[in-house]
């Protein structure tokens, strides 16, 4: 565990706080008070460490069923919380054997913010931005073979479905933060924003709610099913038996995850298979709600919901085992959690549509859910469609 102070001039340039889901009215008055970084090699339980660190800095999230306290400018406003997919797998007791392509990134980051005087964005000398060619961590043929391996596991009865994710990296020069902030401004980015640290940065354009808690009410919005944002694409998504079956399996998984931390009988599903738009893609989304069990704290919340069901599979632990065996590199900043936490209020996005910098390399990840009916070539094409707007935005196009 590493408790580190606000980073200085030797690190990435500072920007106004732009953490996904941070209170809009507070963003230009937030000042960093303290931060915690944790990596799996540090040992311990990251969910417990996050809860204890927040409590030590005046943010008690040990009982999320309490009413949200009045927002006072004289105490901590809240905190950014980032949890990697590998940390989520660690919480689930699953293997994470693949090497991480961006080792500078922590597996847990918690940044506590106070209110300070109103600030303006610091003036910076403009530096030319250049993003080089992307190198994928696997070829399309290797990606297709991984899809076939999951289909074989489904045929054996090991899993019902599993999510397979690929990675790509590109060299860059210049300040990466404007590019990452452009990413966070993409249409449909419910969790658009940036989190930075010493030598690393994460830019998120996620449309997906991993978990939201307000006044004891739990919400998750799993997304599963993708087509081009055309009239034909929408009709195809709505009529696809494969996409609907895959989606409903994940909704059932999310219902089960919430049931572990909810009052008995309170889990409900709203807006099943609602089609929504992200950039030039249609995606199917459902809303699962529940009432939190008495005394539910942040640590138990993270343990029950991480890693997200829509980026793992069903059953979750079995899917994670196949993911660890099939993906050549780790998921880094993707498929984890990033957002804002405060007493009585948690709002974490699932870090799909996410990029990260590590040293002088930019990283992206993309994938999709595999079922018995999956076509390997179509799955490779879907992953490319998801990452295309991200690469174009980062390049400044």
Short description, anyone?
The protein is α+β, with helices and mostly antiparallel strands and 397 residues long.
Word description of this protein:
This protein has helices at residues 46-56, 85-92, 140-156, 177-184, 231-239, 241-259, 298-305, 316-326, 376-395; strands at residues 2-4, 30-38, 78-83, 108-115, 130-131, 135-136, 161-173, 191-197, 200-206, 209-214, 217-221, 223-228, 268-278, 281-291, 313-314, 337-342, 345-350, 354-358, 361-370. It is of the alpha+beta class and 397 residues long. It has a single domain, classed as Anthranilate synthase, CATH 3.60.120.10. The strands form two sheets. Strands 1, 2, 3, 4, 10, 11, 12, 13, 14, 16 and 17 form an eleven-stranded antiparallel β-sheet that branches. Strand 10 (209-214) and strand 11 form a beta hairpin. Helix 1 (46-56) packs antiparallel against helix 7 and helix 3 (140-156) packs across helix 9 (376-395). It starts with a strand and ends with a helix.
Q: What is the topological layout?
A:
Layout: E1 2-4, E2 30-38, H1 46-56, E3 78-83, H2 85-92, E4 108-115, E5 130-131, E6 135-136, H3 140-156, E7 161-173, H4 177-184, E8 191-197, E9 200-206, E10 209-214, E11 217-221, E12 223-228, H5 231-239, H6 241-259, E13 268-278, E14 281-291, H7 298-305, E15 313-314, H8 316-326, E16 337-342, E17 345-350, E18 354-358, E19 361-370, H9 376-395
Antiparallel strand pairs: 1-2, 2-4, 3-4, 3-16, 5-7, 6-7, 7-15, 7-19, 8-9, 9-18, 10-11, 10-17, 11-14, 12-14, 13-14, 16-17, 18-19
Helix pairs in contact: 1-7, 3-9, 4-9
